[in-house]
Design a protein that fits this description.
heterodimer, A: 654 residues, alpha+beta, 6-stranded antiparallel beta sheet, 23 helices, 19 strands, 15% strand, B: Helicase, Ruva Protein, domain 3, 13 helices
């Protein structure tokens, strides 16, 4: 006997599918969710299955309520809020898991499937990769299969139910594709989804301390991709300007918040050929926009140039940004500088890194001029035994002193920092630029990939008459870093660690192919915004596309699709009229203009016709009676003749 | 709309019983008001040599219908009130020792009537129920190794209260299958109820009514019913209905071949009552809920819960070939 709360094993057939669909939906979230959420799901899923198998009772309502409250509080505790993608999906995952514990009938499982679909879609709010689409399709197939399995009275084979769900999805796909293409895109979204900030995005931070960039050098995440219109500048010119740091506290360099300086652009004067290119920037959750040194023109709404000629966006960059820009690799900026600015850019904290300051003053005195002093410092880096390494030793309170006089091993940020400090010690205005240097050309897509491992820090110094200009002390120590970039070295290292050389090449090729695919995906699928849509509509032959036209086209296409599918399905289900009587009767029903319902008998149909004005009841009855007699009555040639004359008469009178 | 009668097409010798059947139908409709369709169905059930199960709440005229049927059709009538202490012997009868002749003599039970009303059949134990159901199926009774034939025609009307009442043994599916039809009478409409309340006592009316038919005439009508024409398209339709009932996800148990045969037999009888020249789709649809309703089981979790809706679902989903 099953009690009120007891399970009866009736869900044994459908439960695995429901659990599978839920697991599929939660999987993309797992890496962002607190571990206890995943554990809760696994525990609930396993115990629900076990309960059904053992025909146990489900947990009592009070326990479920307590659990729900506890998990709500736990989420509040983990995230300190309940809105946003992170807490939202965690809440869904936990409540879905708890819902399992009260799933008793089919309806409950439907709720779980709705949650699954919702969570699958929610995973797109976090990230949209190339593999997101196949994953989503697989997830929908699993959910649909679960759905079908639940709706069927008798279990069918797994293959058959998967085939039916695939068929359903295929039938729906044209509508989905049409909606995707034609649904009017709006440049500014109505809503902004608060992105999950608990997970880190690798990238440059707003300040620089020793060790910051070297930790980035191990990440091959893509920072941005660039497509050049003309010739690609040589590696030594590929400095991607990001943010400027000009305040030093002895250890950490910091910049200022993004701010507009309308005169910044005017202070640039350029020479030589312009370089034109388009950038697709991956989300950084910061404001900085990267462009080739030195950018003079760019087209991106809501962006501006700051006082140090760095570009910034008004909002944190949560979505992939695409912009085109024009740069000149030979340029001068800020030929004049006030004495106030000069002292600002030469400020150093007192009583820190004193040895370095003393050394710089000594070298400046020996050099005679600022230019010579710069050269001598670079020469010192080049000729004395300074090493360029990804694993520099940790540095203490006076990092510049320690680096210059003790460890002498460092990464670009060490050199840039030490160089800038020495310049400032000698009274030369200097600042640090954070950005990227280099980039790898992907021959497959003919574009350049700039990765996080290309992150770089260099210095700019100001000299009277020349203005600000770039000096990269790292180039003095490790010119190969500047000339060949980081990428090659990494793959060789991987290959070497396997004791093989061939896989390195092969792996590199594979990575490039994958990235080319991703770039196409980003351009065409994820980047299908208002601009691309306009272009595509024009390509399709729509003149002056606007949202009304698109919406009407969409409605038309969807209606057409539904009508087409309905006709196909109706054709398949309608039995072909076989005999003469049926054909005559079909003529009659067509003539009335009122199609009979499925399973409507001739007499009921006649009754329905009587209610319509303008029909002659007698002639309708005559046709009906004779049809029934001719088709279902005792076989009789005369009856058929009578039907024929009745139909002819009806058609004439109508 | 009433489709023109085609009495002319029927064999001439059976004209008299057909007129009597019409008369019987008319008489029944004067006693039981507002239930024309149910009366046609009950008559069709009887003409198709089937047994009838009436399932409804007390007081809706189940017993009245059975009594009137017996009366109007001129059949001998016995009523068995099923109770929880009813024994099989109370139904089929017992052998009693006759001291004078020094032998056992069989004393037939109430089951030996042409029309047996088994009232509230679900109140008795399964053992008593099965005694009746065996008699229905075999049309004979075996007591002490001796077989006794039941009278002919033989017609059982069983009534049953909806099974969620206390202290009942609902008939299992396999035994429900023995009944050709299951009917629900339901409440009368306003007008009929008013006529019932103001008219003469129905029992008195019943006593005054004359039999329109007798056993012999009924037998010949039953033979005639079997000769009603069933066309190829109609057989297609029956097969389509049966196939759908087996394939629909809403239905757990579809119609068996026996169910299909029952459908055709009942539709034939219905067509005969309405003087159709053959079985029309309308006949099939009219008898469908009564014949198929208790043979279909909705799928667990289906939105459809009762037999009427389930039958409607089948009829509305299958195109008439």
């Amino acid at each position: 006997m099953s009690s009120r709360n007891g399970t009866d094993g009736s869900l044994l057939a459908s439960l695995p599918f429901t659990l599978g669909a839920l697991a599929f939906a939660i999987a993309p979230h797992v890496q962002y969710l607190p571990v206890w959420v995943t554990v809760t799901f696994l525990y609930c899923a396993a115990s629900r299955w076990y309960i059904e198998k053992r025909r146990w009772r489900l947990p009592p309502p009070w326990l479920r309520i307590v659990l729900a409250l506890l998990s709500f509080l736990a989420i509040l505790f983990s995230y300190e809020k309940v809105s946003g993608v992170g807490p939202g999906s965690a809440l869904l995952a936990v409540m879905g898991s708890l819902k399992l514990l009260e799933t008793r009938v089919r309806r409950d499982q439907f709720v779980l499937l709705f949650i699954s679909i919702f969570m699958m879609m929610a995973s797109l709010l976090r990230e949209q990769f190339l593999w997101s689409l196949p994953y989503l399709i697989a997830g929908i197939v699993v959910t649909m299969t679960a759905w079908l399995n639940m709706s069927l009275a008798r279990p069918v084979s797994l293959r058959r139910s998967i085939a039916s769900s695939c068929r359903l999805i295929l039938l729906a796909a044209p509508v989905a594709i049409a909606m995707w293409i034609f649904f009017p895109r709006i440049s500014t979204p109505f809503w902004s989804v608060p992105i999950d900030t608990s997970s880190g995005v690798s990238g440059l931070s707003d300040n620089m301390s020793p060790g910051d960039i070297s930790s980035l050098s191990l990440s091959d995440a893509v920072a941005f991709r660039v497509r050049f219109d003309g010739a690609v500048p040589p590696p030594s010119q590929r400095y991607w300007r990001g943010l400027i740091l000009h305040q030093f506290n002895g250890r950490t360099w910091t910049g200022r918040e993004p701010s507009i300086d309308p005169r910044a652009r005017r202070r640039i004067s350029v020479s030589g050929e312009p370089v034109r290119y388009q950038v697709v920037l991956e989300p950084t959750r910061q404001h900085w926009i990267f462009a080739l040194d030195m950018v003079i023109d760019w087209n991106l709404k809501q962006s501006f140039m700051g006082p140090d000629q760095q570009l910034a966006y008004t909002l944190p960059i949560d979505q992939r940004l695409s912009y085109s820009a024009v740069s000149h690799t030979s340029y001068t900026t800020d030929p004049q500088m006030t004495s106030l600015a000069k002292s600002w850019y030469s400020r150093l904290p007192e009583s820190r890194n004193l040895q370095s300051i003393a050394l710089a003053r000594e070298m400046r005195a020996a050099a005679g001029s600022d230019q010579k002093f710069i050269e001598s410092v670079l020469r010192r880096f080049h000729e004395e035994d300074f090493y360029y390494t990804l694993q520099p030793p940790p540095l203490g309170r006076d990092p510049v002193d320690q680096f210059l006089f003790e460890t002498r091993r460092g990464f670009c940020e060490h050199y840039a920092s030490a160089f800038a400090v020495m310049m400032r010690a000698a009274g030369i205005p200097s600042r640090i630029v954070l950005g990227y240097q280099g980039g790898e050309l992907n021959p497959l897509g003919n574009y350049m990939i700039v990765r996080q491992s290309d992150a770089h820090a260099w210095t700019e110094v100001w000299l009277p008459g020349r203005g600000w200009h770039r000096v990269d002390p790292t180039a003095a120590v490790a010119p190969e870093r500047i000339e060949s970039g980081m990428s090659g070295a990494r793959y060789e290292a991987i290959g070497a660690s396997w004791g093989l050389e061939a896989p390195a090449q092969w792996l590199h090729q594979l990575t490039l192919t994958w990235d080319a695919l991703n770039a196409r995906w980003n351009d065409w699928i994820l980047g299908y915004g208002p601009e691309n849509q306009q272009l595509f509509m024009q390509w399709l032959g729509m003149k002056k596309p606007d949202w009304q036209k698109m919406l009407f086209t969409l409605l038309g296409l969807v209606t057409l699709g539904i009508v087409a599918v309905s006709i196909i399905l109706l054709r398949r289900n309608r039995p072909p009229p076989k005999d003469a009587a049926a054909r005559l009767y079909a003529q009659f029903t067509r003539k009335t203009g009122l199609p009979p319902h499925t399973g409507e008998t001739p007499q009921n149909y006649a009754r329905r016709l009587h209610e319509r004005p303008g029909q002659n009841p007698q002639s309708v009855d005559r046709v009906t009676t004779r049809y029934l007699a001719a088709r279902y009555g005792t076989p009789d040639q005369q009856a058929l003749q009578e039907l024929k004359s009745a139909v002819v008469e009806f058609r004439r009178s109508a | 709309m009433q489709v023109r009668s085609t009495v002319e097409q029927m064999p001439a010798e059976s004209n008299a019983p057909i007129a009597a059947l019409d008369q019987a139908r008319k008489s029944l409709n004067t006693i039981i008001l507002g239930k024309e369709e149910e009366i046609s169905l009950a008559l069709a059930c009887l003409l198709a040599r089937g047994h009838l199960l009436i399932e409804d709440l007390p007081g809706l005229g189940k017993t009245m219908l059975a009594q009137s049927l017996a009366r109007v059709l001129g059949l001998t009538f016995q009523r068995i009130q099923f109770t929880s202490d009813l024994l099989p012997a109370d139904i089929v009868g017992v052998s009693i020792f006759n001291q004078k002749q020094g032998e056992f003599r069989f004393q037939p039970g109430p089951v030996f009537a042409q029309l047996v009303l088994a009232d509230e059949v679900n109140r008795a134990t399964p053992k008593a129920q099965s005694a009746l159901l065996e008699a229905m199926e075999e049309k004979q009774v075996s007591v002490d190794g001796k077989t006794h034939n039941l009278p002919s025609p033989y017609f059982v009307v069983a009534t049953q209260n909806p099974s969620d009442q206390i202290g009942t043994f609902p008939l299992p599916e396999s035994q429900l299958d023995r009944f050709l039809m299951r009917l629900e009478l339901g409440y009368p409409d306003e007008k009929s109820e008013r006529a019932l309340l103001t008219g003469t006592d129905r029992r008195k009316m019943l006593d005054e009514i004359d039999a329109s038919l007798d056993a012999g005439a009924l037998g010949s009508l039953q033979d005639a019913v079997e000769r009603v024409h069933v066309s190829e398209p109609l057989l297609d339709y029956v097969q389509a209905l049966v196939r759908f009932s087996r394939e629909s996800p809403e239905i757990e148990t579809g119609l068996s071949p026996r169910g299909a045969l029952a459908l055709i037999a009942a539709a034939r009888a219905h067509a005969f009552i309405l003087h159709h020249s053959g079985v029309f789709p309308d006949d099939l649809q009219t008898v469908f809920a009564a014949v198929a309703g208790h043979r279909l089981k909705p799928a667990s979790g289906s939105a459809i819960r009762n037999a009427g809706e389930l039958s409607r679902h089948v009829l509305d989903s299958v195109a008439i070939p």
